[in-house]
Each structure stands twice: as C-alpha cells, then as structure tokens.
Design brief:
The complex is a heterodimer of chains A (386) and B (270). Chain A has helices spanning 2-11, 19-35, 37-58, 76-87, 100-109, 122-129, 143-165, 189-219, 221-227, 232-262, 270-294, 298-316, 328-334, 338-352, 356-385, and strands at 65-71, 91-96, 114-118, 131-139, 173-181. With 386 residues, chain A is α/β, with parallel strands linked by helices. In chain A, helix 4 (76-87) links the parallel strand 1 and strand 2 (91-96). Chain A starts with a helix and ends with a helix. The model of chain A is unreliable at 1-16 (pLDDT under 50). Chain B has 270 residues and is of the alpha/beta class. In chain B, helix 6 (156-167) runs parallel beside helix 7 (186-201). Chain B starts with a helix and ends in a 14-residue tail after the last helix. Classes of the chains: A alpha/beta (386), B alpha/beta (270). Chain A binds chain B through residues 1-2, 4-6, 8-9, 12-14, 16-18, 20-21, 23-25, 27-28, 31-32, 35-36, 218-221, 223-230, 385-386, and chain B through 20-22, 66, 69-73, 82-84, 90-92, 94-107, 109-110, 114, 117-126, 167, 173. The complex binds adenosine-5'-diphosphate and magnesium ion (MG). The site of magnesium ion has 4 residues of chain B, from helix 2.
Chain lengths: 386, 270
C-alpha cells in the first residue's frame, strides 16, 4: 500500500510545480483587487488625491506678490534692476526699506514675502571688479511660495546680468545670495512628498497585504491552499507580488505628480530612488505578512496596521515633527520605525541630491529590518501549518 | 426522509475493505493547553469507502480532520494518510488528498470558471486538462450557463456542489469533506450525496463529517465522536443493531446523552 502511494506521487505531474501555480495565484489576486472598488481607490486613487490636495493647498498665487527693496547704493544699475523686478508680472515693489531690521518687521506683518538687498557701491563693484552682490531674503514659513519667489527673482537678475554683459568682452557677474528666514531647510512641500511616499507604500503594502491574507483566513480559503501542494513560502510571495507591482505604479505616479504638479525636483539619481523605494516596499510587505500571521480578523489586521504602523509613522518618522526636537525616549523609539529611515533616504536623494555613499547606513538598516520581518513572517506561517 | 427511501435513491454504499487501508489513526490526540479537543482516537479507513465522521458541534471532528490533512500537528498518537506519516510527510499527504473546509471555500468575487481554474492551477494541472475537466464539471452540475457568473450570485447548494467538484478536480486518492451539506436544503443534499457516490465509485475514498443523522445512512461505516473520543464505530446497520435503535438518530441520542460538552450544554469546557 505504501509503495503504491509513493509510486503514485512520483508518477504524478507534480514535478516542476511552481511557475504555473504562481501565475494562477497572481491572476486570482488581480481579480480580487480589480473587482473591489474600495481596494482600487486605496491603491491607486489615494496617493493621487493626497498629492493633489496638498498641491492645491500649497500652490499660492505668486502673481503680483509684494516685495520690498533695501537699496544701499541707489545708483543707475540698482535702479534699473529694481525697475525690471517691478515690471515683471510676478512682483510688485511695495516698499523701500532703510535697514535690515525692517525686513523682519514687514515679514511679520505678512503681506510681503520677499526682500531684495543691494549692498553699497553696487554699480562701482560691477564696473571695477565685474562682480557685484545681491541678497534675496525670503519668508520661508510657506516654503513653496518662498521657493517660487526666490526662483523668479533670481531668474530676473540673471536675465539682467546677461543683457548688460552682451556688449562687453569681460562678463559681469551678479552673485545672488539667498536666505530663507524662519524655515531655513524649506520644510513643507519638500518634506511632504517623501512623507506621502512612505505613507502610501505602508498603506498599500502593509495594510492591504495583511487584510487580504487575513480575509482568506476568515473565508477558509487559506486552509484549502495550505492543503494544496503549494508551498507556504510561495503563497506568501504570490500574495505579495501584485502589491509590489501596484506599489511601483504608486511610486511612479507620486514622483510624476511631485515633479510636474508640486514642482519638487528629483535632484539625485532616479534609479537609486526607485531601488530604495522597492526596498521600503519589501519592508512594508514583510510587515504586512507578519501582521497577517498574528491577526485572525480583518478588523484586527486593520487595527494593528493603524496603531502599530501609521501612528508611529506619522509621529516618529520626522515628516510631521522633527525627530531632533523629541525627548530622548521617543528619539530612541523612532529608530524602530522603518519609515524614519526611508524618509531620510528619500529626502537625501530627492532633495539634497546625494548618492548611496551618504545613505548606505539607512539602506542597510532597512535591509536588516526586511530580513528580520520576512523571516518572522515565514516562520509563523510554517508554525501555523504545523 | 426515511432510511429506506434513501437506499432507493442512492446505491448501497461501497464497502471498500479488500483493497487496503488509506487512513490509519492510532491514539491520535490534540490538546489546546489543558483542553483535550481530540482524545486518543483510533480508526482505519479502507480504500474506496465512504467514512462518516459524526458528532455534535464541538465534538472535535474538524480538529481531527485538520490533523489528518496536515494542517495541524497532533499532540500525540500516530496517523497515516495515503501511506504517509502525518507528522513528517504532510507535503506528500497534500499531493494525495482533496479538502473541503467547513467554511465556504470558493472565492465569491470570482466566477465559477475562474474558481475552477484557480484551484486547478495551484495543483499545477495543464491547461488542456483544466479546459476539458471544466467543461465536464459544468455539464455534470448543469451549470453551463453559470460558468461566467460570480460565485456569490449562486444559491448555497450550488456553491457546495461546485466546491466539492473543485475539491476532487485534481483526482485525489482521498477527499476530506467537513460538513459539506451544512445549511443546504434536503433536495440539494441528496444531489450532493449522489455526487459523493459517483466519486466513491471512481475510487476516491471519502472522509466526511456531518451532524445530519439521516446522512449517516449513506455511509459505508460511521464513527460517532463524543467529547473528543470515538464512542462507536461500525456500519450503520450494525450500529442500529447493537444500540437497539430504529434509526441512526436514536443511536446518536443514546450516545450523546453522556456528552459533557456540546454547543447546547452550558458546562462546555472550551
Ligand atoms: N485552535 C483552537 N484552540 C483552542 N480550542 C480549540 C481550537 N480549535 C478547536 N478548539 C476547540 O476544540 C473543540 C472541538 O472543536 P472542533 O474540532 O471544531 O469541533 P467540531 O468540528 O466537531 O464541531 C471545541 O470545543 C473548540 O472550541
Ligand atoms: Mg467542525
């Protein structure tokens, strides 16, 4: 009898199992996703909605923005440059200042967001040394506006420099020095995008993966799969793959919207950013798998995802509240939040434009977290089977 | 439905026996903490027979079945399914069995065809096999017109019949059915049982739990579980004889009177 059973097995068409099972599984998973409107919205609509809402909240009117001028030279060059600024449709020169102290005073009143300062002897410097300086000071409490305004002002000054250089052999150089008051690192839009990326990937990968696996537990379909020859590891991977693919779409759409709607540039390597995002996605997926092995109902899975992941991510990743200002215990706890490391990485690559050299430590930490969570998840999957 | 009319509708249950043992449990036990859900059960199931696994709610049927399917590790005792050890060879067991869980085991948001294709797919069947067999099953179930309907649109009885067809799609040696007819109307239940007979005739051993006593009459042999133990095991007619009962219902009542735990009993220990 035993021999019979063994023979049956070795003759059965189960050799080379894998690819086909995997495809069947992933196809089924896509049916679930595509047929559930709520899932579709969370997966694809949410990131877009978040970015756009934030984008609208940020995109302020920059036409005819009031600016102030502190002109310590009062010569022909500064007068014509000020005239150019005033002529642009972006600016409206509203005030002449007579000291640096006045700048802060008018910024506090809130009507004026930008001040242009010419040092003494502007024209002489230009003529004798071919080089002069302008200082642009912005109220950066609204970083998006500050950034837009300083960009426009710099462009107008560069334009002027080009024009006066045109008829000369030696080029004139006007150095613009930009200073952001109140928010020197331009926290805001630039910080929001990395934050949204972390949130969306967590939402899609952790919560959705956890919920969909727990749903199969509730339904009893997971048991049927565990009784099939499909290996638990393959079930886990097949469950995760569709969400990994959707995350890639999300990352792409968030980046496109950031660049084209919010005007946040990707200063570093796009490939590096994509790879780091995939790494974070994998961390989130493993967490989702881990949660699903502990939770018995969809509500529990959702609750654990929210309490254990979203709150710490919002509070401790640094994108809402700077980690440096937190009390020591919270600073220590924040190291356990994967989003904190991803947030640091995205900020470095996207905004500071740095390469892997500066973020290898964060990358290694994320990779370690992924391995840890994944091992735990697969282990608990097996234990349940036994 | 009286027991005689059952016999008229369905053929006499296959006896199995001569062709060897496919399931063998010896003092198989499962404890959850202090609580013994399955208490040293021993039995053998012969190839080709329909083995009824009876018991009130909470008697331990599902737990015992899960151990045999390799879903749950026994606390003690031994068990062999299709010749393989339930402790060490559950991967091999899986290749030889089909399983219909007590919970509904199809995807409601997938169509009939998509469900069949998915379950056949995870057993690694070829496209040609899947196509031919799907046509055959749809015809057998008279569900050709429902092939592209979502499963959630089907009546419960139809779903259960479909779930059974899916559970034996890959032509296993043994199929485990956990309360497959729960909540199903009597007419559909009878149709379901004739499907079970067809499967048994094709050589598949059936291991089925139920708490409908009239269904016990359809089985080759039945075991009756009370509080995690098997208190009686024989052919239905032999059981009726030894308990001096007219029906299986009566046999069951005589046994159940001693039960300490059941869904209706407030002293339930779980
Ligand atoms: N995972 C578990 N942990 C603790 N107790 C359990 C578990 N699974 C089942 N039980 C208990 O074991 C007993 C038998 O359950 P079960 O096998 O589902 O009975 P049946 O299928 O006969 O209705 C019940 O009292 C149930 O509460
Ligand atoms: Mg049960």
């Amino acid at each position: 009898m035993e021999e019979l059973a063994v023979k049956r097995t070795s003759n059965s068409p189960f050799r080379g199992l894998g690819g086909k099972q995997f495809v069947s599984f992933v196809r089924k998973e896509f049916y679930h996703i595509l047929r559930d409107k709520r899932t579709m919205f969370i997966l694809l609509g949410m990131p877009i909605v978040q970015i756009i809402i934030f984008g609208f909240a940020l995109t302020n009117e920059v036409k005819n923005s009031g600016i102030a001028v502190y002109d310590q030279s009062k010569d022909a060059a500064t007068t014509s440059l000020i005239a150019e600024l005033a002529a642009s449709r972006y600016f409206d020169v509203r005030q002449d200042l007579f000291s640096y102290e006045e700048i802060e005073k008018i910024f506090r009143r809130g009507k004026i967001k930008l001040a242009v300062v010419f040092p003494p002897h502007f024209k002489e410097d230009l003529q004798h040394f071919n080089k002069a300086q302008v200082q642009i000071i912005a109220d950066a409490s609204d970083p998006n506006v500050a950034n837009t305004l300083t960009n426009y002002a710099t462009a107008i000054i560069m334009d002027y420099q080009q024009r006066i250089t045109n008829d000369r052999k030696l080029p004139y150089t006007i150095d613009t020095e930009t200073k952001m008051l109140y928010n020197p690192e331009l926290k805001g839009a630039y910080n929001f995008v990395p934050g949204v990326m972390a949130m969306v990937l967590l939402l899609v990968c952790t919560m959705m993966t956890a919920i969909t696996i727990v749903k199969e537990k509730e339904m009893g379909t997971l048991e049927v799969m565990l009784v099939s020859p499909m290996k638990p590891l393959m079930i886990v991977i097949a469950k995760a793959v569709p969400y990994l693919m959707l995350s890639a779409i999300n990352i792409a759409s968030i980046l496109l919207l950031s660049v084209f709607v919010l005007g946040v540039p990707v200063n570093g390597s796009l490939a590096l950013l994509a790879l780091e995002s995939i790494l974070f996605t994998l961390v989130s997926l493993s967490l989702g798998l881990l949660i699903s092995s502990g939770a018995e109902s969809q509500q529990t899975a959702m609750f654990i995802s929210l309490v254990a992941l979203f709150l710490p991510t919002i509070m401790l990743s640094g994108f809402m509240f700077p980690v440096e200002n937190m009390p020591l215990p919270l600073r220590i706890v924040s190291n356990l939040v994967p989003a904190k490391w991803y947030y640091t990485i995205v900020k470095s690559v996207m905004i500071k434009g740095t390469g892997l050299i500066t973020i290898w430590k964060e990358t290694l930490i994320l990779a370690g977290m992924m391995l840890f969570f994944l091992t735990m998840a697969i282990k608990s999957f097996k234990i349940r089977l036994a | 439905m009286s027991s005689t009319s059952n016999k008229n509708i369905l053929n006499t249950p296959p006896t199995g026996g001569e062709r060897g043992t496919v399931i063998k449990a010896d003092k198989l036990t499962k404890r959850f903490g202090d609580f013994t859900a399955v208490d040293q059960i021993s039995f053998e199931v012969n190839k080709g027979e329909i083995f009824g696994f009876l018991g009130a709610n909470g008697a331990g049927k599902t737990t015992a079945m899960r151990m045999l399917c390799g879903l749950s590790l026994p606390t003690s005792g031994t068990g062999r399914v299709a010749g393989f050890d339930v402790y060490k060879e559950n991967e091999k067991i899986k290749r030889n069995i089909g399983y219909m869980s007590q919970k509904f085991s199809l995807y409601e948001d997938l169509t009939v065809k998509e469900n069949i294709r998915f379950y056949a797919g995870i057993y690694g069947k070829s496209d040609k096999f899947i196509k031919d067999k799907t046509e055959f099953i749809l015809k057998q179930l008279h569900m050709e017109n429902e092939a592209d309907k979502l499963v959630k649109a089907l009546p419960l009885g139809w779903r259960q019949k479909l779930a059974f067809s899916v559970a034996i799609f890959h032509e296993p040696q043994i199929v485990f059915l956990d309360e497959p007819t729960g909540g199903v109307d009597p007419v559909t239940r009878r149709e379901f049982w004739s499907m079970i007979y067809q499967a048994a005739e094709s050589g598949i051993t059936i291991f089925v739990t139920t708490h409908y006593m009239d269904e016990a009459e359809y089985c080759s042999r039945v075991s009756i579980m009370v509080d995690g133990r098997i208190d009686a095991l024989d052919t239905p007619s032999q059981l009726k004889k030894s308990y001096q009962a007219k029906s299986m219902d009566e046999v069951f009542l005589k046994l159940a009177r001693k039960a300490a735990r059941s869904e209706s009993n407030p002293t339930k220990t779980a």
